[in-house]
């Protein structure tokens, strides 16, 4: 997007709006079970941002309010190139708790993998095996920072990994995060992300919002990461065994989820998906998937990648990489192998 500055930009709006009133041209982008995202124009700063707020039926619910506020604060405090900057957190008399964040360009990693799975040659050229591994590695770097700050993401998956138009990689949706030393705001059974089984699950028309001042696109879509309540935290196909068992978790749970993402990034196939959630959970807890190099021989995955994936997704936490830095070190070695094979 090109910057556009005019002679009037030296003047602030008068009277100067505050809070949610300073945002205009709200357009719904996506919604889920309890929240909604809008693109909006900040009249004071002169930029387009993304606003996140609760759906009307949840705006007065104390639990939903404090979880959204907690999500906003966790995201705001994780200032890192791999996270989305939060510009403002506020509360509006009519629309309740909201926060404004940077609008980022690009697409989520799941969309990239879905197109690869369909044989899109243009996407395959833009995202060879090396680049896909690099995206997972960059995600690990963001998690190193988060873990050092005492934050466990708990919902790492390709849909939450955003690949920018200029090569940047951003890890989104810290709403399920666990913060060490902070009071627990849920009992571990609040927000499971429904896992899409086919492409249509990413293009379901949603009901119109009840916000009169909002302009709508012709179609709006469900946002997988704004999720309904009442189940385990996380997304079934990416949850660690300890998440499924609702046990205490640490950074090794994120290591497991990243391992699943790594498998999927390389093989363009999911390692654990079953015919339903129970079978998926059984696969995660009891079964070893086919090595990625054998699952997708056409991707030319080095055998070393199998060892790395299986260590990351080990059933027992003691058998996994103990830190994200350990996983990064092995990914760096793997990237050297892949780059060498590319030149041969």
TrEMBL record:
The lineage of its organism: Bacteria, Pseudomonadati, Planctomycetota, Planctomycetia, Pirellulales. It is an enzyme of class 2 (transferase). It comes from Rhodopirellula baltica WH47. InterPro entries: Kinase-like_dom_sf, Prot_kinase_dom. It holds the Pfam family Pkinase. Keywords: ATP-binding, Kinase, Nucleotide-binding, Transferase. This is Serine/threonine-protein kinase. It comes from the Bacteria. One of its GO terms (molecular function) is ATP binding.
